[in-house]
């Protein structure tokens, strides 16, 4: 009667018992179940021992296992959580694990990735046995595939501690018949009992485990002789482990030492990485930076569960509480892709927000480079309130690289920015950079980015700003900037009223039909033809005007997506170098006149404070000379950026963004006069801008009534080089005096045109005179070099 009212103690157990794991049946005194913690639904594993269906001896073994597991704490030993004993059942709750056999069967890894992972698993079990045998003076007595489990992080954990004894005690008797196959041979041979060491029994078990990892469960000891599937690096050690003489079996500590040497089985990238992370607290800052910088390429070879649950948490901890610096960002963001949205918001976003408040330039630069990988996970409110205000400081940074990367980051930020941040703050900074920045490449990319974000601008702001901004770009002394203005005008053609096309855009474009750069002229003529074709269609059929101007006042363009269709716009990287001369005046060299010369080995000598990233390089350059005197009248360019390599050496990022000029005489070439106007096409300076295959701008279908965007043929790899301006062009401070885009006007009258024609004729005559003088000077210089013994050396001063 009283038993009817008695409370079941198992109800006090803080875990729910779930599905039975069948693979462990008849391999242990326990039944393994999946479980969850009540309240939190945290997954656990619950080992259940039924008192009614087992003997008293079995119960003693189960109780011994609970006691041992509760006191054993090691990273490679199964983690104890809780236990409960009643008169009916014994519960043991541990971290959530799968039996190793089940884990290996469903393991999706293959090839080198699988090999690395298995080596890490065997290393963990060997380390656990070393802890038991050497540090705890304990003998496990039950090492096999059924006593090893794998947690959610992919870590192998040693369990099955039912038969653990002291090294001074005798062997315990196994009550499960299926485990007899793992009994070491000396147990049945009294003559060898004296040769038993404290670790010989467990080393036999380790040998059996290694065989099972590569072959499956062991059913007969005679199968251990087959080593076909065991890696060659491991065969010699395996043979020692399963040798008949117990005294010859190595100590687990010695196994780790041997296999961790160069060429050993435990010496691989995954084991090295995980061991470094376990010991990261005792590593110095240089070691951490070197480790994190080299980590990213290796992550592709690591299992996803190890990366997500083992490596990523360590990276986040290293960033939050350590001095890992910006080097940790690349691998952290790469592994962040493995997280679902909830986990990303919880683990990565707080780090990102914190990082954007950093004053370290290297950190800010890496964040801007990685922005496209995590911007999709950021909420619009977070971007506008916490991130954009920090990014906006980069527009005014003294470091050109930071300014450039900040400009390009707007492309990814624009869809999430609110009205004020995008239409006021961003455009204010863009207007200043486009008109006042001393780097031609930054002015160019400002124009490029403005075109790419045009679809996100408010229609009224867009109508007010775009034409003025692009017309200003078309007056820039830097040729790629003028080209960018022309192409941007063409790619955003759907946002202009036809009256503006005829009164403002075409007059501005026509002024560039006599541009010194052929690439600019080519772009202008193609664009003019497109706009004229558009006007001609409306002239023939006025009813098309409404459809052609449909996108002017719409927030979501219907005919084309301005940013998405710029396939080929050069904004992803700036690969050319630029320099600041000793007089702080921005200069440029002449374009190649007849053919492009390849730059010998190393022609530039960067200053100690030079800054370089994957998107642009900032360096001071010494004088450049020809390789030999046989290059005739060829014009030399200092900007052969095809062969330049990206460099991550930022130097001291805390000393400011100003560069020191290298010793030497500036940029001197033997064949180009820096005061002369450009002749021929600027093949090197404008590479990536002049070879697009445009389709006809007026080949749009009649029903659409709009011109085809030239962007369809632009390749995404094109870049806007950051190059110095030419001396003969206007200095930057003399550029268009307007401080706001809407103030720019186009002067278009006959008197002005006549005056310009007279100037062009006069300039043409002077060019011819300078060309003749330059040829004479070149001949004299070649003669001097022959007498003087060859070309000048790098860094030598000209006399």
For the sheet with most strands, the description reads: 5 strands, antiparallel
Quantity of strands, as a count: 13
Please tell me the overall pLDDT: 75
Structural class of the secondary structure composition?
Answer: alpha+beta
Q: Give the overall shape.
A: elongated
Strand content is 5-15%
What value does the Rg take, in angstroms? Answer: 37 Å
CATH superfamily of the domain at 100-269: Transferase(Phosphotransferase) domain 1
CATH topology of the domain at 100-269: Transferase(Phosphotransferase), domain 1
User: Could you estimate the helical fraction of the residues in percent?
Assistant: 40-55%
CATH architecture assignment of the domain at 100-269: Orthogonal Bundle
Number of helices: 24
Strand arrangement in the largest pleated sheet: 1-2-3-5-4
Biased composition (Basic and acidic residues): 740-770
Domain Protein kinase: 15-266
Organism: Acanthoscelides obtectus
Biased composition (Polar residues): 708-718, 725-739
Structure description:
- This protein has 24 helices and 13 strands.
- Among the domains are: 2-97, Phosphorylase Kinase, domain 1 (2-Layer Sandwich); 100-269, Transferase(Phosphotransferase), domain 1.
- The strands form four sheets. A five-stranded antiparallel β-sheet has the order 1-2-3-5-4, covered by helices on one side. The chain has a three-stranded antiparallel β-sheet with strand order 6-8-9. It has a three-stranded mixed β-sheet with strand order 11-13-12, with no helix packed on it.
- The protein is elongated and about 115 Å long.
- With 799 residues, the chain is α+β, with helices and mostly antiparallel strands.
């Amino acid at each position: 009667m009283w038993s009817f009212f008695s409370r079941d103690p198992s109800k006090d157990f803080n875990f729910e018992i779930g599905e039975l794991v069948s693979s462990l049946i008849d391999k242990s005194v326990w039944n393994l179940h999946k479980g969850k913690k009540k309240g939190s639904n945290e997954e656990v594993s619950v080992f259940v021992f039924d008192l009614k269906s087992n003997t008293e001896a079995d119960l003693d073994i189960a109780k011994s296992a609970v006691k041992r597991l509760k006191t054993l704490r090691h990273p490679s030993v199964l983690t104890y959580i809780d236990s409960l004993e009643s008169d009916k059942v014994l519960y043991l709750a541990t971290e959530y694990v799968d039996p190793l056999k089940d884990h290996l069967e469903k393991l999706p890894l293959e090839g080198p990735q699988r090999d690395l992972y298995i080596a890490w698993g065997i290393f963990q079990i060997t380390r656990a046995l070393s802890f038991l045998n050497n540090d705890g003076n304990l003998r496990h007595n039950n090492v096999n595939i059924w006593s090893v489990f794998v947690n959610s992080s992919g870590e192998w954990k040693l369990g099955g501690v039912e038969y653990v004894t002291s090294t001074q005690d005798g062997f315990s008797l196994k009550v499960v018949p299926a485990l007899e196959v793992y009994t070491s041979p000396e147990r049945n041979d009294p003559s060898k009992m004296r040769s038993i060491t404290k670790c010989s029994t467990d080393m036999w078990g380790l040998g059996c485990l290694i065989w099972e990892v590569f072959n499956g469960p062991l059913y007969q000891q005679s199968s251990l002789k087959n080593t076909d599937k065991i890696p060659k690096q491991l065969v010699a050690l395996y043979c020692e482990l399963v040798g008949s003489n117990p005294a010859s079996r190595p100590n687990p500590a010695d196994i780790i030492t041997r296999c961790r040497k160069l060429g050993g089985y435990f010496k691989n990238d995954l084991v090295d990485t995980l061991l470094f992370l376990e010991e990261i607290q005792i590593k110095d800052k240089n070691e951490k930076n070197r480790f994190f910088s080299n980590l990213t390429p290796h992550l592709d070879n690591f299992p996803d569960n190890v990366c997500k649950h083992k490596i990523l948490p360590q990276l986040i901890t290293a960033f939050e509480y350590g001095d890992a610096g910006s080097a940790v960002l690349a691998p952290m963001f790469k592994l962040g892709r493995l997280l679902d949205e909830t986990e990303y918001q919880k683990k990565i976003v707080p780090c990102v927000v914190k990082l954007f408040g950093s004053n370290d330039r290297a950190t800010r630069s890496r964040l801007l480079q990685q922005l496209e990988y995590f911007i999709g996970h950021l909420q619009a409110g977070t971007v506008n309130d916490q991130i954009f205000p920090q990014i906006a400081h980069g527009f005014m940074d003294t470091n050109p690289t930071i300014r450039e990367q900040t400009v390009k980051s707007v492309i990814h930020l624009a869809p999430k920015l609110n009205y004020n941040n995008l239409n006021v703050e961003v455009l204010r900074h863009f207007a200043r950079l486009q008109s006042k920045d001393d780097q031609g490449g930054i002015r160019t990319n400002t124009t490029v980015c403005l075109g790419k974000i045009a679809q996100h601008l408010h229609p009224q702001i867009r109508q007010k700003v775009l034409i003025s901004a692009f017309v200003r770009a078309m007056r820039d002394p830097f040729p790629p900037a003028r080209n960018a203005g022309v192409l941007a005008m063409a790619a955003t053609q759907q946002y202009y009223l036809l009256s503006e096309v005829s009164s403002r855009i075409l007059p501005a474009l026509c002024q560039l039909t006599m541009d010194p750069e052929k690439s600019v002229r080519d772009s202008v003529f193609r664009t003019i033809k497109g706009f004229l074709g558009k006007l001609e269609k409306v002239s023939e059929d006025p009813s098309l005007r409404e459809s052609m101007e449909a996108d002017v006042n719409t927030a979501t363009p219907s005919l084309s997506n301005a940013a998405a269709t710029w396939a080929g716009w050069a904004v992803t990287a700036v690969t050319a170098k630029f320099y600041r001369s000793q007089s702080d005046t921005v200069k440029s060299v002449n374009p190649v006149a007849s053919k492009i010369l390849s730059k010998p080995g190393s022609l530039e000598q960067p200053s100690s404070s030079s800054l370089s990233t994957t998107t642009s390089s900032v360096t001071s350059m010494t004088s450049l000379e020809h390789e030999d005197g046989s290059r005739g009248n060829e014009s030399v360019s200092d900007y052969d950026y095809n062969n330049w390599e990206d460099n991550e050496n930022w130097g001291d990022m805390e000393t400011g963004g100003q560069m020191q000029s290298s010793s030497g005489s500036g940029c001197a070439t033997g064949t180009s006069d820096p005061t002369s106007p450009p002749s021929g096409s600027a093949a090197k300076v404008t590479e990536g801008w002049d070879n697009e295959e445009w389709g006809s701008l007026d080949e749009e279908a009649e029903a659409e009534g709009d011109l085809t965007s030239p962007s369809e043929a632009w390749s995404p790899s094109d870049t806007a080089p950051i190059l110095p301006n030419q001396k003969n062009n206007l200095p930057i401070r003399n550029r268009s005096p307007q401080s706001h885009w809407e103030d720019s006007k186009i002067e278009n009258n006959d008197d002005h045109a006549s005056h310009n024609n007279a100037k062009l004729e006069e300039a043409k005559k002077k060019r011819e005179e300078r060309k003749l003088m330059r040829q004479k000077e070149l001949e004299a210089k070649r003669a001097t070099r022959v007498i003087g013994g060859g070309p000048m050396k790098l860094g030598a001063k000209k006399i």
